[in-house]
Design a protein that fits this description.
By secondary structure, this protein is mostly helical. Helices cover 32% and strands 4% of the residues.
Length: 330
């Protein structure tokens, strides 16, 4: 079907009006103003700020004074989380950069032989810890630092952390886990090499997944110390982070789990027995508490398991707790 001349004119006029609307309406709404693009000077200013931490000329005067003698230390300091103190001006120079940890450095700059700076290499472990806690006392990780086994045994912050020469990207450690922990905890290192163990050496979990190295409220429980374990005093809640099926709550609880925790039966780090149990014979483990086994259960006390009633767990299968039977049979 051919279009008439009048129809063609109306068709092209509609197209022109639509095109004019696309141009005129935005100008009417925005006042004909163009979107301003960042100027070259603004971009240069932003680039300068981004490179400020690595530009020697842009360093604060205090840092430059330290850098004149301690160039290698200053260079490493710029790459640490402590460098962020340079952006916090609320406490003044006393809370920024080198002086935040070492104290005022004016006298040291004038005469290094008469320095009054805080020297971490010569200070006592208690003084070092107090110095670090002036900034790090808040937060859940350091709330119980006064109750830390490390602190009570003269282990300071710099025993594990290096402010200037850290070897890890996180937490500024002098050595990565678990090697750092093994440098003191040799017994636990041996346990993690046992046939049945938590997979710490393989990197599946770390020491600090279960322990808060800075201190907790853990106390002496039975015949074992719950050493700075995260969560509850008995230490079992930290186990339930992974072993959720053992947590409950159960209608019929196993008293040993409720009162003493998982360590009543298990060696937490690793051992020679399956399931990291304290004894290879399950009966002997149960008989630590269940010595009054009446009647038919007397045969279970046979350590050689020669009788047909061989193991307690053959019947009491729900040893962590049950919702159906008080004897934990099901």
């Amino acid at each position: 079907m051919r279009l008439t001349n009048r129809t063609r004119r109306l068709y092209f006029a509609g197209i022109l009006l639509a095109f004019w609307g696309l141009i005129a309406v935005p100008r009417a709404v925005f006042g004909g103003q163009k979107v301003q693009e960042p100027s070259s000077s603004a971009s240069a200013s932003q680039s300068k700020k981004l490179s400020e931490s690595t530009d020697e000329g842009s360093l604060p005067a205090e840092i430059q004074a330290c850098q004149s003698c301690h160039g290698d230390i200053t260079a490493s300091f710029e790459k640490t989380p402590h460098w962020k103190t340079m952006n916090d001006t609320r406490g003044g120079h006393a809370m920024q950069g080198c002086e935040a940890c070492h104290g005022p450095g004016g006298d040291h700059a004038d005469d290094p032989s008469k320095s009054s700076l805080f020297d971490f290499k010569k200070a006592t472990s208690e003084d070092i810890t107090e110095r670090c806690l002036t900034c790090h006392a808040s937060g859940s990780e350091h709330m119980s630092a006064s109750n830390s086994f490390h602190r009570q045994n003269d282990v300071s912050c710099t025993s594990c952390h290096s402010m200037h020469h850290a070897t890890t990207k996180e937490h500024m450690l002098i050595k990565a886990e678990p090697g750092l922990c093994y440098s003191c905890h040799l017994q636990q290192k041996a346990q993690f090499n046992m046939p049945f163990r938590h997979r710490v050496n393989e990197g599946l979990i770390t020491c600090t997944d279960c322990h808060n190295q800075h201190g907790t409220s853990s106390v002496l429980e039975g015949d074992h110390l719950v050493r700075q374990v995260r969560a509850s005093a008995p230490g079992d809640v930290v186990c339930f982070k992974c072993h959720t099926d053992k947590q409950g709550p159960f209608v019929f609880e196993h008293e040993a789990v409720r009162i003493e925790g998982c360590a009543a039966c298990h060696i937490a780090h690793g051992g020679a027995n399956p399931r990291m149990l304290k004894y290879s014979n399950v009966n002997l483990l149960c008989l630590q508490c269940h010595t009054n086994s009446p009647g038919i259960h007397a045969t279970v006390m046979d350590a050689n398991q020669s009788h047909y009633e061989q193991a307690c767990v053959n019947c009491h299968v729900k040893i962590h707790g049950s919702n159906f039977d008080g004897l934990l049979d099901r």
